[in-house]
Structures are given as structure tokens and as C-alpha cells.
Amino acid sequence: MSPATHVVLLVLAGVGSGLVGYGAGLASLVSYPALLAVGLSPLAANATNTAALTGIALGGAGSARPELAGTRARLVRFGVAGLVGGAVGAVLLVVLPESVFAAVVPWLVVLGSVVLLLRPWLVRLHRGRLSERSPLVIGVVGLLAVYGGYFGAGAGTLVIATLGLVLPEPLTRIAALRTVVLGLANLVATVIFVAQGLVVWSSMVPLAVGMVLGGALAPRILRRLPEVVVRVVVAVAGVGLAAFLLLQG
Predict the structure, then answer these.
(1) What is the pLDDT of residues 116-168, one digit of tens each?
(2) How many CB atoms lie within 10 A of CB 220?
(3) Which residue blocks in 72-226 are alpha helix, DSSP H?
(4) Is 199 left (phi over 0), alpha (psi -120 to 50) or beta?
(5) What average pLDDT score do residues 76-86 get?
(6) Using CA atoms in the order 226, 213, 149, 180, what is the torsion angle rounded to 10 degrees?
(7) Which DSSP state fits 47?
(8) What percent of the chain has pLDDT over 90?
(9) Distance in angstroms between the alpha carbons of the first and the last residue of the chain
(10) What is any Pfam family matched here (predicted)?
(11) Contacts of 175 (CB under 8 A, 6+ apart)
């Protein structure tokens, strides 16, 4: 593969990842196979992908300022969980094989997809029983950030499903919050991966550029769609990702 083809492929993959990553939390479904296709090893592809994923948060947060307005307390609360979880996940990736999570993750993604589909009914069922300030909720987000720093395929779907149960907000606002939280998890994980020499910069830079572009476009598209459409699309895409992960396993 020529250097020009390498760059073009990864920029296009990055744009696609940014669009589906911001909206459905499934960026790695596009970007990770693209990195393998250009010749990276699974470990290098994982670390490089995590570094590039910060581009979605960068592009998405800039375009989602209306959705993020008034969420400073939430950003701090869940952002700290994201930072701590991302750091733990990155360390686990360095010392453990990826197969540790491989068996359980597809089923977690299916569960998250079902939760999204049933969100209106589940919210009515537990209304008033669980607060966004609950240590349980913050802990779950932190654990999902651990997975986000470790491998991350489907982490976005799981976080948006979790937050969707406790935040009385449109999914567009929840998606924006989720993007920032996982962006922080990816950022701190990237620092660790760079220190370990795992990031392939010649692949990370074009992929990240594409993700910034895709992440910037996604909020403008998402806010024009009815919430039920967003919920169904994200849930169906999550089931598709789970099937992909099961087949890969």
C-alpha cells in the first residue's frame, strides 16, 4: 500500500468513525479494522485507535456546545470517573491479553442496546429510585471507562445506555456528555500508550484528523433526528457490533 493510499484510507475511516462514534458509540467498528488493514498488529492498532479516538471528543465537543450547556457539574462528576477508568484500562492493556474481556463484552453490548430500546419504560419504572449522583452510577461509568481504555468497542453504547437511565435529558445531550467522558478516558490512556511506545503516529494522525471532522459533523446531524430514530439506530448498531465481536472471537 502506497503512503498516499494509507493516509486517504485512514482519513476516510476516521470520518466514518467520527460519525458513528459520536452518534452510536461504535467508532472502533470502523477504525480498528482499518488499522489492521494497513498492517498494524492488534496491540499497536488498539493503542493507536485509542489515541485517535480523542479526535471525536475534540470535534464533537466543539460542535455540541448547545448540548453541553449547563452540564459542568455532570462533566466534572463523570469526567473524573472517565479519567480514572481510562488510566486503569490502559494499564490493564499493557499487562493483560485482550481476550480477558472478549467473552463478556458482546453480551454487555447487547444488554446496552436492549436498555436503549426500552429506555422510556425503564425510566418510568425506576423514576426517583436512582440518582445521577449515586456512587453506583458513577462507579458503573468508571468501570465502562476502564473498558474504554482497555479496548473500548461498544463502550460508547454502554455509557449512553447507563446515563440514559438516570438523566432526564434528550439522547443528543447524553451523547455529547458521553463523548466528553470517554474522550477523557481515551486521553489519559493515550498518555500511557505513548509512554510505552505503542502508538503508531503515521497511522494515528490521519485517522485522528478524520475523526475530528466526523465528530464535528455528527452533532449537527444528530440534533435533526427524532429521538426514537436515534435510539433505535444506536440499539440496532449495537447488536450488529455484538455480532461482529462474537464472530471475531
Answers:
(1) 677 677 666 665 567 788 898 999 999 999 988 887 777 888 888 888 888 88
(2) 10
(3) 72-95, 99-102, 105-117, 119-126, 135-150, 155-166, 171-195, 201-222
(4) beta
(5) 96
(6) -60
(7) H
(8) 42
(9) 27
(10) TauE
(11) 22, 23, 25, 64, 67, 160, 219, 222, 230
Q: What is the pTM for the complete model shown?
A: 0.84
Distances (CA, A) of 207 to 42, 181, 210: 16, 20, 5
User: What stretch of H or E contains 247?
Assistant: helix 227-248
> Taking a C-beta distance cutoff of 8 angstroms, is the pair 94, 151 a contact?
no
The identity of residue 121, as a single letter, is W
Q: How big is the chain, counted in residues?
A: 249
- What's at 37, amino acid-wise? A
Widest Cα–Cα separation across the chain: 58
CA distances, 2 to each of 15, 44, 65, 208 (Å): 20, 20, 39, 19
With 0-12 / 13-18 / 19 or more C-beta atoms within 10 angstroms meaning exposed / middle / buried, residue 136 is exposed
60 vs 154: CA distance, rounded Å:
18
191-211 tens-digit pLDDT? 999 999 999 999 999 999 999
Residue the block writes with cell 452510577:
137
User: What cell does 225 get?
Assistant: 433526528
- Angle of the 72-95 helix axis to the 135-150 helix axis, nearest 10: 40
Taking a C-beta distance cutoff of 8 angstroms, is the pair 81, 181 a contact? yes
Can you tell me the distance from the alpha carbon of 87 to that of 102, in angstroms, rounded to the nearest whole number?
Answer: 20
